Structure of Putative ABC transport system permease protein:
Amino acid sequence: MLRWAWITWLRSKSSVRSTLILLVTLTFLLSTLASVASGARSAIERDVLNAGGLTQIDLSSIETGYSVRELNAENLRKARGMEHVAKVVPDYISSIYTQSSDPHTPTFDLTTHSWRPSTRPSLVRGEVPQPLKPGQLVLPSSGSGVDFNRYVGEELPVAYTRATGEHSGTPAHTTFEVVATYDPEWQLDGPDTAYAAPKTAAMLAAAKAGMPPKRYRSTTGATSAVLSVTEQQYVPTVVEKLQRMGFSASPVADRVRNLPGVLGAADLGYQVGILVLLAVAVLTGLSNARSSIHSRLSELAVLRILGNSLGGLRRILLGEAMLTGVLAGVIGSAVGFSGALLLRGSLERLLGLEVSMTDMLPNPLWGLAVVLTPIIGLVIGALFGGGVALRRDPYLLARSQS
């Protein structure tokens, strides 16, 4: 019957064959979403969780819907004093830029962040001391058109803004030691980011706000912070206590379960998409089986004359559906994975993490499901559609219409 199904499928101009493009397109989209979500999840799990992320908690001073505790010195001290908390590293955001208009001085403008436990870029040159000391910087190997590799181990003259009024400021000058550079493709905190010790980052942010560092830490406070717990088992307990105290707190591990932004949509999309693909395949198989029988009534009548039973005709319809499903599943999945590989560079820039080709491979069970879904859907549709359409013998029906 498979041989007859292959012959009739090749010769057929029915809707069963014409829907191949539709199912390939849907399978392609589903495979691409699954591969992108898999790549993001694998990269975050490897580079964030394996770097101690399982024992880390994110604190934020920005939350919508309800008020949260500010991450000022007093509140950070309360968080640091909780049971099972090892340390709290606040993140202060500001900027540094070119010191003068000297044409021989490199022109740059970099955003500054605190070096935190979750900060693990791919280093290009130099080493990051543990801990990073005040007055030291970790820079991208290239940023704002400047090659910073040549400054590793040297002092870099920079300027930062010191506020003189509500909407005015003046450049202040200093030098920092560049201890290391990292791959600029890593952009956890955005492009052109310089990392400094929390004390240095707070000084830069305080100057921009026109305050002494101590007052800035006590009033405005940090934008976010990373809290490290002594053991992974205590993370849920500490998160619950922090939330009861009014902190916006979430485990770093949630970054794996809840992918950010469009990646979260991709993660949800392929899980919902597989149900959509199955529904479309079933409905298409049902419709195609019925229309195929009516459009090829004379051919099926000839097969009945040649000795084929009604069960044999049903098997031919199922064989055609299987052929269409196999082609849709295999072609759509292969092209979808290839398309996801083309998005790997954009995914790395979005995450600020390295994503390997093997990371893009979806879970084997999900990959198998993507391939089998159009096959199963079309077979189910053809089984029910063919059963209804073949209630009357095609030979007798053809004779009655002649």
The first strand starts at residue 56 and ends at 60. DSSP finds 14 helices and 13 strands in the chain.
